[in-house]
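Example 3.
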Amino acid sequence: MKKAAVGIDIGGTSTIMGIVDTDGNCLYKKDIVTSEGKELNEFLRLLSDLIDEGTSFLNEEYRIAGIGIGAPNGNSKSGNIEFAPNLPWKGVLPVVEKFRGIRQERIILANDANAAAIGEMVYGGAKGMGDFLVITLGTGLGSGFVSNGRLITGHDGLAGELGHVTVNRNGRMCGCGRRGCLETYVSAKGIKRTLFKLLGHFPDIQSDLRSVSFENLEPPMITKAAEDGDKLAQMAFEYTGGLLGRKLADIVAITSPSAIFLMGGLANAGDLIISPAKKSMEINLLKVFKNKIEILPSSLKENPGVLGAAALVWGYNSC
Amino acid sequence: MKKAAVGIDIGGTSTIMGIVDTDGNCLYKKDIVTSEGKELNEFLRLLSDLIDEGTSFLNEEYRIAGIGIGAPNGNSKSGNIEFAPNLPWKGVLPVVEKFRGIRQERIILANDANAAAIGEMVYGGAKGMGDFLVITLGTGLGSGFVSNGRLITGHDGLAGELGHVTVNRNGRMCGCGRRGCLETYVSAKGIKRTLFKLLGHFPDIQSDLRSVSFENLEPPMITKAAEDGDKLAQMAFEYTGGLLGRKLADIVAITSPSAIFLMGGLANAGDLIISPAKKSMEINLLKVFKNKIEILPSSLKENPGVLGAAALVWGYNSC
């Protein structure tokens, strides 16, 4: 019997359950609408049913080695999801404890960016790396740091909040209540804010995006425009990547990773974001770190959330 | 037979060899002038002789479990001291390899700030902590980060350069060739620069330090003046601690330590530096980290360099 891991990717809208083998092949996958579980208990029972469906589909060929869960604000130390603003259930959710009441398998919870880092280490481009970081560029900016082959979780499980280091003390308002956090610049929402500031600042530069309202602009439209030669969209990427690179130079001085992986919507812009980030990082790096560190797109293209969650079963706390 | 560790603290001026038991008692200690060893080989032979002297002094009561070496620019991964500007020998020095040629014991090298962190974990206030950091405030600013009970060394052994994260892109010139590094503000040299800028900026505020030249001012004089109520000296500490606290808020978001220890000359100013640092850190922290993290003076008061080096034998790579 071969081994497989269950990976559960909990999101604000939908939750995906997948069964993944040790090579990163997704053998079975099914999703549910997250709010279908009116209460946490009901949601976990729905997930448990999905797992049973999956294992019976796979017949007796695979043994489930464990269940990994990636969730916004998932805390690997406490086993709780803590105050996740975009989930239907509020407060502190003792996910691991409750799930243990209905499942026999080993259960590991982590926040989604930390799961992404372990996914990259187990199945992706960070295979064999002991020191690297993964940055998820979604609506916000998440991050997972790996040092000595283990996640940096901090004493309370809350480490890895790169989105909330300060770029500019008097800068943009952040959802966290402070000003100038990195994610107010470097994220899908951040580049959209930048583009609109540029539209206002350079009224004479022609751009197709002038016909789109703030409400209607989706970040992939900025990527598309930049690829098509739109000057302002290109400037927005230069600015965003430049700020990211500057902060990465600070991060490198602290953790000296061998590579930095970018994942998520904005990362799909590829060189549009990576090239200015790399250039700005190199300019700002301390000499001993120059020309050593790669910024790479994640190599987990399909089901990154499920792969990351499943990878927790193999890779969390591996030394 | 009880176990003890040799700790060697290599400095630009003098090098101290100590034999330390598992409780942190220094059983034997002797120093030499570092430049007495004209070449690295000669220096290591002198150290080897000191170790033999020490072990024969201790008779057969103790068995030496290993030799730890703390040195500026000591790289734990390569075992080399790499381009240390203040040592008599230049370039890459294969200390561990050469020392292995003349000693039978296990040998571990680390940079001095990393050794300080392990010293704090094994013998000091960080005993039992898995996640913390130690900041050494000497001429410059060094740091050692511990996560999951292990040093963050990075892929190349060069991690922990908190002194070279950027506070102000257009700020003070740093010895590293860049501008605005944290250590140009928060270090013995940094606070001296701040004091002289304040002397120039507020010519009407009375201060005893107006009679001292830049060349003659030693940082402990600023501490003494601040303790005696000198307004400008107190402002210099407020400014220095404030900047440190702001950067610590960023660091906490990344590594979430349970405590931050300050060590070295400037740290001896105690609350003069800790109090504004703590205040500024709390103001700038992301909400989930507030009121959880202590900034503490190191509890290694005597021989911190030797204790840190010796601690490498017990604490390096302990999981």
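Chain A has a mean pLDDT of 95. Chain A has two domains: 2-124+302-315, 132-297.
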